[in-house]
Amino acid sequence: MKKVLPRLVLYSLPVMVLYYYYAFFGLEDNTGVVCIIHEQIGWLCPGCGGQRALNAMLHGEFIEAFHYNQLIYMYISLIAFLYIAFVEVYILNNRRFKRSIYLPHWFVYALVAIVIVFVIARNL
Hints:
Helix content: 55-70%
Shape: flat
Protein name: DUF2752 domain-containing protein
Number of helices: 7
Radius of gyration: 17 Å
Largest sheet: none
InterPro entries: DUF2752
Distance between the termini: 51 Å
Keywords: Membrane, Transmembrane, Transmembrane helix
Number of strands: 0
C-alpha cells in the first residue's frame, strides 16, 4: 500500500468539511445559500433542499433528509464515488484502480433521465 500519507490527508478532507458543516450550518447567522433558480423562476431545481437534507443526514434524521430532497442519497453516493475516483486516478495515479473502474454508458443517460423526471414531478 503505497502513498498512505497522501491518502490519509485526501480522504480526511471531506470528513473535516462535513464536520465543519455539521457544527456550523443552520445557526442563526448561517442559513446557507439561496437557490438562484427558485428565486428567479419559482421552480424547485434538482438541488433545492439539498443543504437542509445534508444537515439532517449529518444529525441522524434520515427520513427528514429524504423529505427535503428525495435524490440526496443518490447525490451523496455519486459525489463520494467521483471523489474517490478523482483522488485515486488523477492525484495518486493508481493504475490498478483506473483499470478496475468502469461505468457503462447508459448510466449517465439514466442519471439524467432520473433527474429530469424528478424536476418535472417536483414542480407539478
